[in-house]
Amino acid sequence: MIKSSVSNCPVPTEQQPLNEYEELKTSWLFRDSTLNWRKYITKIVWIWSLSWLVAGPVAAASFPPHKYIAHFMLCGAAGASVGVVLALVRLYLGWFYVRDRLYSPTVFYEESGWYDGQTWTKPLEILDRDRLIVTYGIKPILRRLQFTSAGLAGLFLIGTIVWRLL
């Protein structure tokens, strides 16, 4: 029954919300947010570590490590966290966009260009399927990203307190 409704769907294949979801799940950055907690945190730490390649020299120029090791470490860690923040924002916005497309009862799509957009109303069985995907597939990822962002904000707060105590 779902097959017939999907076959009547006028939305181009690459713009169908389910296909956008499947594509997002397999893309290199976005699939990392679907991993178990240990692997996910490992990927976040990798991003943070690679960000040190830029943040470290900038922090060293501001606070020479041989004189101000604590300030250098805090400044470098905060600077490297910018890479993590950018990655989290990109992940959140991507998943949020697909969540909205899946959850919506209508789908806006473009037939041949930006100037001729159309709207398709999903049949009930497709809407139910898409909302189940949102509930069990995307909402846990968005919660994980929110939790990670809150944890990062907490680390920034701790770093700020330590900085003030130095």
Automatic annotation (TrEMBL):
The keyword Transmembrane helix applies. It holds the Pfam family CGLD27-like. The chain crosses the membrane at residues 44-63, 69-93, 147-165. It comes from the Bacteria. The keyword DNA damage does not apply. Keywords: Membrane, Transmembrane, Transmembrane helix. PANTHER family: PROTEIN CONSERVED IN THE GREEN LINEAGE AND DIATOMS 27, CHLOROPLASTIC, PTHR34214. This is DUF1230 family protein. It comes from Komarekiella delphini-convector SJRDD-AB1.
